[in-house]
Amino acid sequence: MPEEHTEKESPLSKLYRLYLSGLSIYDFERLVKKEVPGIYQYYREQITPPEPDTGKFKRSLLFLKDLFIVFLNKLTPVRRIVYSVSLFFFIWGYFVGSYFYLVLAFIITNLLLAFELADKLSMRDELEVAKKIQQDLMPPCPPEIESYEIASYISAAREVGGDYFDFIKYGENGRHLFVIGDISGKGMAAALNMIQVRTLIHVLASGAEDMHRLLDGLNKELYRVFKREYFFTANVAVFNQTGKLSFCRAGHLPVIHYSAKDKETKVYKPRGMGLGLTATPIFAETLEVQEIETASGDVLLFYTDGVSECMNENGEFFGDERLIRIVHHNAHRPVEQIKRDITYRLADFAGETDQHDDITFVIFKVK
To answer: Model pTM greater than 0.85?
Structure first.
């Protein structure tokens, strides 16, 4: 039998298979346009800018020095020493022409990189667990409210976020308390604050006689537990089986209401300030309760600023006007179709731009 001829894989082919297979032009564009500027901005925010009259060459040297110091400070003390030793071996090997020290520096640097990568992957796993926990705190599906069809959508800009919405049984007669809100900031800090907000709302809702007292009590508690740079904006509404809606706006975005009878889309924006900003009586004094009479075919949209401030590649915002037009032109459709159209329009508007804020909206349609 003839021998089978197996061609040996060349070193260049092996290098391509290990490192370059599966990559695309888009991956390189993302690295150059998004990841590198993001990393640069991360470090630059922690560098003290030089004096305005400093020369260009000196400014560059100072910037490189400060950048190196900030980078070192991000390493643990042990890894900082290991990296410094690696850098010393590299410089020494370069000047004395010793390949041994150059290779040794390369090996130490790669070991250090492996440890940093392991930490990052471990942190990513922990964030996935945190994301799962946060998702479990959100309603898995809207409740059955006799007069309404309901659809909801939430998407965090990072693994976890600060947007929040919830449905709570409120009092008697089949009423439901609906809350949608946004914690200032993003990421883990906002997510932890959101959990505090959710817990407080569930506790206070059981004893509050009306929305005004509920929000006033929530404001006092958040002022006590929040750090001063954090606050919470929210729309709180009470739905009953008759289709009548009462709501308060605590510094949040307006509510969009399409009236099937009048064929008009209105925006409701009663007075109210954010929660956790002050413990003085001014919060309760400015808070206004508004009632909306709804009829069959009406649509109500509650949303967070991640929707209206969705950004495209030119730095333009999606805006409230586009959202109002979408609701107006799709009000005759079921809520799930309205939801799909909004998400499609947002994705089409943003294009390749990364999501920079949490996106949440809830649609109600009167049966």
So the answer is: no
- Contact status, residue 84 vs residue 69, Cβ threshold 8 Å: no
Q: Cβ distance 148 to 120 under 8 Å? A: no
Question: What would the two tokens of residue 215 be?
Answer: 């929000």
Task: Report the SS3 class of residue 52.
Answer: coil
DSSP string, 124-149: HHHHHHHHHHHHHHS-SS----TTEE
- The DSSP 8-state label assigned to residue 313 in this structure reads T
Give the helix/strand (H/E) hosting 195.
Answer: helix 187-205
Q: What are the pLDDT digits (tens) for 267-277?
A: 999 999 999 99
Between CA 367 and CA 111 the distance in angstroms is 63
Instruction: State which amino acid sits at residue 56.
Output: K
- Tell me, what DSSP letter sits at residue 354? P
Written as one string, the DSSP assignment of 200-230 is HHHHHHTT-SSHHHHHHHHHHHHHHHS-TT-
Please name the helix (run of DSSP H) or strand (run of DSSP E) that holds residue 289, with its range, or none: strand 289-293
